[in-house]
Amino acid sequence: MKNPEEEDGGGNKEECLYLKGVWVEMQRNGSNSSLTQQLGERWLTLMNRLQEDPKIAQVISTKVGQYLRSRPFLALALLLFSAMAALPVGVFLLFALITIVMSVVGFVFFEVFLLFIGGMTLLSVLSGIALFSLVVSVIVTGVFVTIPNLLKRYYPHVTKRKKSEEEAPGLKQQ
């Protein structure tokens, strides 16, 4: 690595920063030097803030954290994969949640529809039974009223015989 103040042949100064085990080199030339310096300072501030965070320090102290710290390319690849996979996973979870909600709502509507159809069928069957019993009642009542009247009118001797038999046992007993 070059010294921080070492000049290369083109007159550009390179600034090297050692950041928690990683050398960061920044080119300084012309108008880009202040922009590069600002970006470098922001990056360092962000990295210091992240490394001082107790949650991140706890993760880095684990075996996986130590492994990823020793392999920054793999850590960057894992970070990029996690960041890029967040949107598709979130969309899938949203789709699953919407599907579950729609299934529940659809199931409730389907159950209500089935109950409505069942209720209408029951109402129709009960109405049919009521109409059938009314018709049977009218017919049976008509039969009970008309048959004795027909017998009295066309067969009076049959009804008189019954009356005389009913009166005869009472006369014999006296």
So how many helices?
5
Compute the number of strand runs.
2
What is the SS-derived class?
mainly alpha
Question: Sheet bearing the most strands, described?
Answer: 2 strands, antiparallel
The fraction of residues assigned to DSSP E strands is 5-15%
What gyration radius follows from the Cα positions, in whole Å?
51 Å
**What order do the strands of the largest sheet run in, or round the barrel if closed?**
1-2
Give start-end ranges of low-pLDDT stretches. 1-16, 20-24, 26-30
Helix share, percent: over 70%
- What's the oligomerization state? single chain
Principal-axis shape = rod-shaped
Distance between the termini: 148 Å
Q: What is the H/E string?
A: EEHHHHH
Mean pLDDT: 80
Structural notes for this entry:
It is a single chain. This protein has 174 residues and is mostly helical. The protein contains five helices and two strands; from the N terminus they run ββααααα. It has helices at residues 32-52, 54-60, 63-70, 72-154, 156-173; strands spanning 13-19, 22-28. Strands 1-2 form a two-stranded antiparallel ribbon. A hairpin with a 2-residue loop joins β1 and β2. α4 crosses α5 (156-173). The longest helix is centred in the middle third of the chain and has 83 residues, at 72-154. Mean pLDDT is 80; it is low at 1-16, 20-24 and 26-30.
